[in-house]
Amino acid sequence: MREPVDHYRAIEQLIYRYAESIDSGDIDGLARLFERGQVVSLPSGWQVKGYGSLKDFYLKQIIIYPSTGTPCTAHSVTNVIIDLDQSNGTALARSQFVVRQALEGEHEQVVMSGRYSDQFSCDDNGWYFTQRKILPTYFGDLSRHFRGQLDRTPAGQIAAPDNVVAFAGDKRLN
């Protein structure tokens, strides 16, 4: 059995690898993080599950620029809090994110920020995502980061209680 600190570091690495995969344009690596999991966006509730579906989804949604092979983004993930249930091999984590984008010849700008709520399980091969919920709280100009339509539910709208993980103090979710 690993030491508890090793569990926390392994989970943190998964959280940060998500950001690194997007920023480096590694859509295959991004989708592999969710081979046994799903990504849900709130409050709309869209969800995509499993490697193949997520890879197809992200290939269609994220704009990759040929000059860099990336979406020209930088995801910053902070305030990572992990609640580990070592006896059951599960963990919950929450964090905040900011996505900045800088295209050639333009100033860097914030295109999105919000929170992640993650669920993990552990087996003999280590920790893995079972679910990532994305709760955007700010939208900038996403037109050069994503194709298609993203949910831009106003901040004052309340999501269905059975479709969210509440964050302490977040009145949108109480």
From TrEMBL:
Q: Which domain of life is it from?
A: Bacteria
Show where the SnoaL-like domain sits. 6-133
Pfam families associated with the record:
SnoaL_4
Q: What is this protein called?
A: Nuclear transport factor 2 family protein
Q: Which organism is it from?
A: Gammaproteobacteria bacterium LSUCC0057
